[in-house]
Prior knowledge:
The chain has 231 residues and is α/β, with parallel strands linked by helices. The protein is built from seven helices and nine strands, in the order H-H-E-H-E-H-E-E-H-E-E-E-H-E-H-E.
Amino acid sequence: MADLTETNPSSVIQTRYLSTTRSSYDTVAHDYAVLLADALDSRPLDRALFGAFAEMVGPEAEIADLGCGPGHVTAYLRGLGANAFGLDLSREMVKVARQRHPRIRFVEGSMTELDLADGRLGGIVSWYSIVHTPPELLPTVFAEFHRVLAPGGHLLIGFKAGERLHHLDRAYGHDLSLDVYWTPPEQIASLLQEAGFAVDTRLIREPSDAERASRQGPQAVIFAHRPPQDA
Ligand SMILES: C[S@@+](CC[C@H](N)C(=O)[O-])C[C@H]1O[C@@H](n2cnc3c(N)ncnc32)[C@H](O)[C@@H]1O
């Protein structure tokens, strides 16, 4: 029998996080995609941020949309001429993304252990994909982001600003089990700096009327880059 006193607590946290998040998004993938498919149409600010990001990275270098969900952000970046592909933990999300965007590459994988060579990417987008990551594991995720980005490469992160853990038992019409973390932008910025990033921009967007009605708070966006001399 396993000796639980010797179990590494952070690996227990990681295993639980990955399995509950994966199975929750497997369950909701189809309905999430239907709900979110046209979300960017009504979000001019987000489109502008992705436009700026695509311009920073340029058309050649590869961009990974990590935690891409149904792939609408990946597709938007491709539409801007960016060389983007998507990666997600949930097999069903990847399946839905491939069905919706058959000309774009989507792969299964985890931000905690990316199957990507060191320095391969020119850009990483993590759009609300760290919101389920337990705080203890953010350094692991940001170390992976730093490892796979080329020196000079750019990172764009969107997340929920605040300081709160919200547990969801039901969402998108299904029973599930998801932790959702709201994190202070200064905390994310300092973890990124500890991982070796230079933080360029921090933005706070107040909740829209619809978000306010569903008791959402402010949303945060950070642009950062891996310093060019950091080879
Ligand atoms: C809130 S959804 C955001 C999806 C999409 N980026 C969007 O903007 O709609 C979070 C997504 O992150 C994915 N995710 C969470 N943890 C992950 C991990 N460790 N590695 C890869 N994907 C992850 C989930 O499967 C889910 O598709």
